[in-house]
Specification:
This protein has 147 residues and is of the alpha/beta class. The protein has four helices and ten strands, in the order ββββαββαβαβαββ. It has helices at 27-36, 73-82, 98-110, 124-129; strands spanning 2-5, 7-10, 14-20, 25-26, 61-64, 67-68, 89-92, 118-120, 135-139, 143-146.
Length: 147
């Protein structure tokens, strides 16, 4: 087990199975089709991201360096939360971008009962250590443990 400390973007705690990508996460390409067509597991639909394409994202600890792509990324995150199909948490090795932060914060404030802890600035060592299938726990104060 290893512990990492990051910066809290949206608060909360959770324990979930990790889904890890080493490349930028295109929120629109990854989640749009699943959200449009009722995929309750929100399987990643980004064929350009072989790390996670086809893997379920709903209820998982999404571990990523940063988000990339469309300016609708924040809205897609908000909608996933509103539909109850969001990742259990999002854990960024780098600083979160403003669009992903907006979607996470708006969902945290506006979607009653929805929680999706988001922690950024976990560092490259975090992304090198965590592997898909490992158990990740987000604790108060931006503490993330991986086992």
């Amino acid at each position: 087990m290893k512990e990492f400390k990051g910066r809290v973007v949206t608060p909360g705690t959770c324990t979930a199975e990790a889904v890890v990508t080493k490349q930028g996460f295109n929120t629109l390409a990854s989640m749009q089709t699943a959200l449009q067509f009722g995929d309750k597991k929100t399987k990643c639909g980004d064929q350009n991201n072989p790390d996670i394409n086809g893997l379920p994202l709903c209820g998982k600890a999404l571990c990523l360096p940063q988000t990339i792509g469309s300016t609708t990324g924040g809205l897609v995150l908000y909608c996933a939360n509103a539909m109850g199909r969001q990742p259990a948490c999002m854990l960024f090795a780098n600083h979160i971008d403003s669009l992903a932060a907006a979607g996470a914060v708006l969902a945290d404030v506006w979607v009653e009962g929805s929680t999706m802890p988001v922690v950024d600035c976990l560092g490259d060592e975090f992304l090198d250590y965590v592997k898909t299938g490992m158990t990740v726990t987000v604790k108060e104060g931006g503490i993330v443990t991986v086992e």
